[in-house]
Amino acid sequence: MACREVVGLDSTQPFSEELVRIPGCFLCYTPPSRVPDVEALPALRNGYITFGSFSCLAKVGDPVVALWARCLHEVPSSKLLVKNKGFYSQDVQATFINKFKAYGIQEHRLKLMALAPTSFEHLNIYNEVSQGLAALLFGAFQGWCLFRKFVALILLETDQI
């Protein structure tokens, strides 16, 4: 099942099953029964802006890293929180950190997190984000979570990730 917002009407993308288009639908999703409260803007309690992304690391290519590094340079005391299951690996963390070091971003400005044990804890991490960053226009449910948490979203619209 798909909608025209995700798979355009003129798409020639092959699918393994017959594509059924649902009119007027973007995402079908049942939110969890228990969600954390929206807290005050973390920048107010921390004294600095925390940019955040829960994007798939495969979508965080060089143009995205360059943009995010620029955001950190433009807001000198800011930090970047990135949550992804790949950060269970120290090697993945080191590779990610080195990409930012190449742009002059020091490691202490990066907070890398792996998966949270529950969906409640996952959603509560959005309370640590002052400003959302996305790698692509459709970032799974990141947009829903950021909207639910009233966090603004900055994204790089490009076909070069």
UniProtKB/TrEMBL annotation:
It comes from the Eukaryota. InterPro entries: Glycosyltr_41/O-GlcNAc_trsf. Pathway: Protein modification; protein glycosylation. It comes from Symbiodinium pilosum (Dinoflagellate). This is SPY protein. GO terms for molecular function: glycosyltransferase activity. The keyword Glycosyltransferase applies. Keywords: Glycosyltransferase, Transferase. Signal peptide: none annotated. The gene is SPY.
